Amino acid sequence: MYQDLKDKVVVITGASKGLGRAMAVRFGQEQSKVVINYRSKEEEALEVKKEVEEAGGQAIIVHGDVSKEADVINLVQTAVKEFGTLDIMINNAGFENPVASHELSLDNWQAVIDTNLTGAFLGSREAIKYWVENDIKGNVINMSSVHEMIPWPLFVHYAASKGGMKLMTETLALEYAPKGIRVNNIGPGAMDTPINAEKFNDPEQRADVESMIPMGYIGKPEEVSSVAAFLASEQASYVTGVTLFVDGGMTKYPSFQAGRG
Ligand code: BGC
Question: Domain 3-247, what fold?
């Protein structure tokens, strides 16, 4: 646990499930004040709120689509109105929708970019604006992926969104470092979350992905939420502009394991 996270106000986008949900609960354990953003799953968001409260935190739920500017503005304003300030912005909402690149429609491309990249930009911008205006040393955590560095056929829009996020984060980190505002990415690998449920519930596909992970297993959401708590805390006070990969070694060229090559 990180003492300084107690009573901190943290907004988490896409927090009704998956990594967002795990982070919400973790910040609840830290006794933070958690703003749970969701797009379509109100009932699940209410369950997460209960879990956060049971864990020892406070929580509200706020509906909003992060690809819509007005929704993101409302999200940050609601956090400030309800909890008095904003300390940590976690841009987590994202999705993937695979298709061969030569058959990818503009609508599909745009939808993934709008949520994964533009949504993270809007969340960062609104949070940083508030911090600059109020002289607050806040911090942004963007949920990137191993695919900010690993190319991924059939997922060109997803990989482009995460590759874009890498330089967005580095640029914002550089731009706002003089104000004490930190901006970092978490780069998860293959995790046991709803986004992957279909793939990983199939033993063959699961084993195939596991063979690409030097540590040999699919990660648990709690292995990401613990990193989010660290990055948000004062323990990471000198860390900005990095991507912390949480991937069991997936980004380390596993095909070269055991001296192959
Ligand atoms: C994707 C997962 C995938 C993992 C490793 C993540 O960003 O969301 O679907 O299993 O990367 O390839």
Answer: Rossmann fold (3.40.50)
Q: Of 146, 149, 245, which is best to mutate to test ligand 1, by the most ligand atoms within 8 angstroms of its C-beta?
A: 146
CB of 96 within 6 A of ligand 1: the answer is yes
- Ligand 1 pocket, mutate which of 17, 95, 96, 251 (most atoms under 8 A from CB): 96
The pLDDT tens digits for 181-226 are 999 999 999 999 998 999 999 999 999 999 999 999 999 999 999 9
List % helix, strand, coil for the chain (3-state, nearest 5).
55, 15, 30
What gap in Å lies between CA 125 and CA 69, rounded to an integer? 10
222-249 pLDDT, tens digit per residue, is: 999 999 999 999 999 999 999 999 999 9
HEC profile of 69-128: HHHHHHHHHHHHHHHCCCCEEEECCCCCCCCCHHHCCHHHHHHHHHHHHHHHHHHHHHHH
234: Cβ contacts below 8 Å, ≥ 6 apart: 2, 4
- Counting Cα atoms < 13 Å in the Cβ hemisphere of 58 gives 11
Is 158 an active-site residue?
Answer: yes
User: Quick one: DSSP state of residue 177?
Assistant: G
* Cα–Cα distance for residue pair 49/20, rounded to 1 Å: 12
pTM of the entire predicted model: 0.98
Give the DSSP H or E segment for 163: helix 156-176
| 165 membership: H or E segment, kind and range | helix 156-176
Q: What is the pLDDT of residues 42-93, one digit of tens each?
A: 999 999 999 999 999 999 999 999 999 999 999 999 999 999 999 999 999 9
